[in-house]
Amino acid sequence: MNPNTLTDNDLDRLEELLESDVFSDDTMRLDEIQAMLCAIVSGPAPVMPGVWLQEALGEEGVQKAGDPRVAETLELLMRLNNDIAAALLADETISPVLYPVDESGEEYDYAAWADSYVFGAGLAGDWFEQAGKHAEDLSELLEPLFLLNGMLKEDVENSGERWFSPAEEARLVADIQNNLPLIVQTLYNFWRNKRDGAIAPIRREEPKSGRNDPCPCGSGRKFKQCCGHPDKLN
């Protein structure tokens, strides 16, 4: 296994391989794989390469390991995994790989990145169950990703609650997109601190507002949709 950090040329080669005809339509894109790996190396329990490689390349793709292109892809993916793990351990922020939503190139597919991160989190089991008494803190840290992939909006609308106006939503999404590397690092640090027993209770001078309680600022909105919203995270 090559221990060297991936170069830009290596990443271009990996992208080229993932799009080659040796793999099927089940193969994940490079942005999706990066997001999945960010969650996997951050999480509370190890996820074996045999598990996530099959998700990345599809069962048929992994079975073609004798093909030189597949073998090269596997090596590059393992190096990518190691690079992400090393960067997050060193508190270096990850630069998300993002693809344009369409040919105009004006918008980038943050939703796919967030969705793949959430998927990767699920490969290590139930994060909330493993967070224990810190599950609510974890929920707040994950809410920006749930907003990016649309799950938060769907949940709010299905519950009959008021969602943000288009302008408010656009502002929140833009803030989260700008802070995505920091959000990913914060989630990594959450699990690292929990493993080290370093998560300390938050000291509050006033009683904590429940997520569904009216916000104490007087806006009339629920706390989780106002001052308790994930964009207050940073």
In words, what does this structure look like?
With 234 residues, the chain is mainly α. It is built from nine helices and no strands. α2 packs across α4, α2 (30-42) packs across α5 and α2 packs across α9. The longest helix has 31 residues, at 166-196. It is globular, with a radius of gyration of 19 Å. The model is unreliable at 200-212 and 228-234 (pLDDT under 50).
How do the strands and helices of this protein lay out in sequence?
Blueprint: H1 8-18, H2 30-42, H3 49-63, H4 68-89, H5 110-122, H6 127-131, H7 135-148, H8 151-158, H9 166-196
Helix pairs in contact: 1-4, 2-4, 2-5, 2-9, 3-4, 7-9
Number of strands: 0
The H-and-E topology, N to C, reads as HHHHHHHHH
* Termini gap: 38 Å
Secondary structural class: mainly alpha
Unreliable stretches covering 5 or more consecutive residues: 200-212, 228-234
Task: Identify the overall geometry.
Answer: globular
Helix residue percentage: 55-70%
Round the mean pLDDT to the nearest integer and report it: 86
Radius of gyration: 19 Å
Number of helices: 9
Q: Percent of residues in beta strands? A: under 5%
Largest sheet: none
List the defining traits of the structure above.
single chain; 234 residues; mainly alpha; 9 helices; globular
